[in-house]
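User: These chains co-purify. Model them together.
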Amino acid sequence: MGKGRLEAFSDGVLAIIITIMVLELKVPHDPTMAALEKLWPVFLSYVLSFVYVGIYWNNHHHMLHAGAKVSGGVLWANLHLLFWLSLFPFATGWMGENHFAPLPTALYGVVLLMAAIAYYILQQRIVAANGPQSVLATALGSDWKGKASPVVYVVAIAVAPFSHWIANALYVLVALVWLVPDRRIERRLTGG
Amino acid sequence: MGKGRLEAFSDGVLAIIITIMVLELKVPHDPTMAALEKLWPVFLSYVLSFVYVGIYWNNHHHMLHAGAKVSGGVLWANLHLLFWLSLFPFATGWMGENHFAPLPTALYGVVLLMAAIAYYILQQRIVAANGPQSVLATALGSDWKGKASPVVYVVAIAVAPFSHWIANALYVLVALVWLVPDRRIERRLTGG
Amino acid sequence: MGKGRLEAFSDGVLAIIITIMVLELKVPHDPTMAALEKLWPVFLSYVLSFVYVGIYWNNHHHMLHAGAKVSGGVLWANLHLLFWLSLFPFATGWMGENHFAPLPTALYGVVLLMAAIAYYILQQRIVAANGPQSVLATALGSDWKGKASPVVYVVAIAVAPFSHWIANALYVLVALVWLVPDRRIERRLTGG
Amino acid sequence: MGKGRLEAFSDGVLAIIITIMVLELKVPHDPTMAALEKLWPVFLSYVLSFVYVGIYWNNHHHMLHAGAKVSGGVLWANLHLLFWLSLFPFATGWMGENHFAPLPTALYGVVLLMAAIAYYILQQRIVAANGPQSVLATALGSDWKGKASPVVYVVAIAVAPFSHWIANALYVLVALVWLVPDRRIERRLTGG
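Assistant: Joint model of the four components:
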């Protein structure tokens, strides 16, 4: 079964998620600097989420490029991932509007955590559909980033009630680690 | 005539429907657990509709994969299906915001029913365009799920004024039955 | 130059226009039949516009299928068409919310008229890029539908201040005439 | 690595940006000419931004058509461009609603400037990935439009507090210059 339509549908959903998030940046009524300054936290939370969705799109792109075959289970694992990503605009908006308050920060972490788990499940499904000798399976290697991220999210969620700044710093940290695209797969595909 | 653009357009509409539904989950103003808890019914109705749109996307994907030829009638039957699916965000939001009250629950069933009928018409059109010996025609077999679902929706609509919980349980039941992708077509395509 | 991306972009914009129009169907707060009945005119205007966007998508699909080559002028003529189509949600919402009042009905006609003119320009550009012997050029023939529609829109706009019902009936009439896909092109492509 | 998905994702985001901008054109409640006239500045700012997004889509299309290879750096440079373009609806809405007041006009220029810089970076990345002998590299030539535009934006931002009309006239001027598609690349591809 072709993966083209799976990619197209995922691209569509991710493109809309990114663009809908920006709607939380509501147009202020008066043309003053003060009105603009109030949007600062919403803007920051938008930047963070934009980077996260970008990371997911990038890695999703690499993963499907490496894994050629798509099964029925892969389709649903992909929809499961898209479900959690579709909650990004809500979690981002709530956190931004409340200036990174503890509870919204914790909920943001929960959505990040569930998306990370969903991504892991999808990865396993694709490996299962393509066999343990496939490019993807050998390219993944230890997958330390995929394993460490959920742990950091759990720590951040637990820390949020006490210091939401540490929690948010952890989200930024994970994003920075992932910003480097998955070179492992890229190297396998091009080099050998 | 190519089916690529039909798939692309349908994917686009389905992707936007899914993502627009989540806008009903309005960002609350205060960062409290109480504010979050109020969103519970809207969230549940979103999950149900997300699964339904996922099922439609999945089956649509399988159906078009099996039926190669596309006629002018297929294009319009497809738009007809997309029309009813485009009412999902409205029906979902009304049901969620009113805590699954009888009338919104019945209307949700009407939209499900019309979408199911539209899907059936589309399926007939594709079979007609591809001939009775096509992969799709033989793969469909008895199509008991496609025939039973509208009946269950009608029962749910009739039951909604008396017990909206039974009606909603029926919607969940149909979704669970469909969650299993259409193995018949998949088997035909891969096996023999 | 490839036309794949032109089709993909147009599909994206048309898919979003269709789905954004449904947002004018605002979810009412109370779960009563009275609340639902108030939405009747908005729903009707949505159905009309959905059919119109469907017609444009359908004909756009046929036209680009027949015309293989795409020039820079075609890209901009296409964006010009998308611009007028992007005003459908606004014109539809205004007409629906005001129960098909004269002025919104006239504006709806203006948007229909401008879109029809933009479609005609696009068609000319594609014919120019593909030559007078191309499939599209010969398939178009007299193009009486394309020529009559703008005339009817002008009549409807002029009539709207006196009878908005006649104006709206004219819009419905044109939609019905177009609902039959462009068989001329289809016949040329398949038969000869 | 294929560029198909990069194009599809960019098309999706650009299509949504264009269509979301039109949502700032809020449907007025009464069906009068006075209500429509109030929307004039919002409509004008929408037209300007539609043309700008159209220019970006057009040039993006040409650039990727000419540059065949896509690296990880190109993916992120592309997301960076999409980030700034995603702020168009916000900047457009703020400027339109405030009748092209100085501060919103200056912010609009900042977003234009950042998008232009992001486009330049993306162009450099694609040239780097395809080598100095590639079609794109030789086709770009002096790239005077790409170099002059940011300068004009900076001037417009500086001028905005004193005369927002001059600033807006400069934005219109740059748009008009770009409306001519990048013939250089087109000529190279077709002619030689």
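Chain C has a mean pLDDT of 88.
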